[in-house]
Specification:
Structural class: mainly alpha
Distance between the termini: 15 Å
Radius of gyration: 16 Å
Shape: globular
Largest sheet: none
Helix content: over 70%
Number of helices: 7
Order of helices and strands: HHHHHHH
Length: about 170
């Protein structure tokens, strides 16, 4: 069985943190920022390392922007924990930015891979999850409990989707 290592890594991080949010009783903005900070930092460092260990081919380097975005969102989230008054607005803005930017980039990757290919379809589903998350956080006024809950749901759904995609990936021809 050929497992896509990047998808498997993203699945493990997303699903693990999604389960943590689901079973954690504290759904305050501090919890959301902490989870977002861990998510972004671990994802950014891990994806960056996995991307840079591949051959310096164009397709590997084109995935580096998501790693940089994740790392920046993670670091800004951890920094936003310092000021209690701005935690909720910071959390809403950072999740919205993550969802919209990563969703748009994954939509680009889906188009680049061809919407008809399995890889393109996997990117498209991830793009839809991200764009819906970003639009929800941008368009709806959410309280902290709802916002953290929706972010946890996004993480859990992405983790399940990416896990299935990683386990069912085929070797390129």
């Amino acid at each position: 069985m050929n497992v896509n290592l990047k998808q498997a890594f993203r699945a493990a991080v997303s699903f693990g943190l999604g389960v943590f949010v689901t079973f954690n009783q504290a759904h305050g903005p501090d919890t959301g920022l902490l989870v977002l900070g861990i998510f972004g930092t671990v994802l950014g460092i891990g994806l960056g390392a996995l991307t840079l260990t591949k051959k310096a081919e164009l397709s590997a380097l084109q995935e580096l922007p998501v790693a940089v975005l994740a790392l920046l969102v993670g670091l800004f989230s951890l920094l936003a924990l310092a000021n209690q008054e701005t935690q909720l607005p910071a959390f809403l803005a950072l999740v919205s930015a993550w969802g919209l930017i990563s969703g748009a980039f994954e939509l680009y990757q889906a188009r680049r891979s061809s919407f008809k290919s399995q890889e393109g379809k996997d990117f498209l589903i991830s793009a839809i999850f991200g764009l819906l998350l970003g639009l929800l956080f941008l368009a709806v006024q959410l309280d902290s409990v709802s916002a953290v809950g929706f972010f946890g749901a996004y993480l859990a759904m992405s983790g399940v989707h990416l896990g299935i995609a990683a386990a069912s990936s085929k070797k390129p021809k």
